[in-house]
Amino acid sequence: MNTTDAQHGTVAVTIDGAIATVRFGHPKSNSLPGPLLARLASEINELSVNSGVKVIVLRSDGDGAFCAGASFDELKAVTDARSGREFFSGFAKVILAMIRSPHFVVARVHGKAAGGGVGLIAAADYALASDKASLKLSELALGLGPFVIGPVVQRKIGQAAFAALAIDAAWRDAYWGERHALYARVLASAEELDTAVGQLTTFLSQTNPEAIKQLKSTLWNDTDDWDQLLDRRAAISGALALSAHTRAAIEKFESR
What we know:
Helix content: 40-55%
Number of domains: 1
Strand content: 15-25%
Number of strands: 9
Radius of gyration: 17 Å
Number of helices: 11
Distance between the termini: 36 Å
CATH class: Alpha Beta
CATH architecture: Alpha-Beta Complex
CATH topology: 2-enoyl-CoA Hydratase, Chain A, domain 1
CATH superfamily: 2-enoyl-CoA Hydratase, Chain A, domain 1
Structural class: alpha/beta
Strand order of the largest sheet: 1-2-3-4-5-7-9
Order of helices and strands: EEEHEHHEEHEEHHHEHHHH
């Protein structure tokens, strides 16, 4: 099943037994405009009430970037605090859908991830990556900050590693991600990555669904207030997106 359109990106969902795959794509390095974020959240929520599913694989199109994060076109189109808050709330809705699903979410990360893409990886219960899956939080360089994705990234890698990642906005290689528990494993090729994903999801598909549900709840305990927390963070990012500094930084970044 394919949804959305080429302009806003695509989301395809397939179900094979107890394994569901959610695959997203966008021509601009798999970036995440609002309609794509909304569809991702909707599809994950729909799969979460499917009792026949035990595991969800989140992946993206192509062999280039896994996810470039926020859509610059939509960031430039933000004209007031309300629209800015609404745009960044899209990331919050996907994160909440992932962590509140009773199914395990496994991220297959084949290439670079920036900004919101790192947030998606952190919101997965288990992430497998290729050695090309370097990552960075680029928000500060754009005059923003990783506010919405911050709680989930910090929870996954710890405060010190999150601070380092957020402050200098530099690329880290995939093995940095593995050392800091963002990636559970790093594989040497796309073929090995697919094999590892297949083996893990086959194992999980044969596991007691009640055990999965209970373990999932344990992994994400103490996040009941994240609806309000992420909404407040979206408001911060939305306001910053209106600043002249941020708009100039985006223009400069796009002209490279």
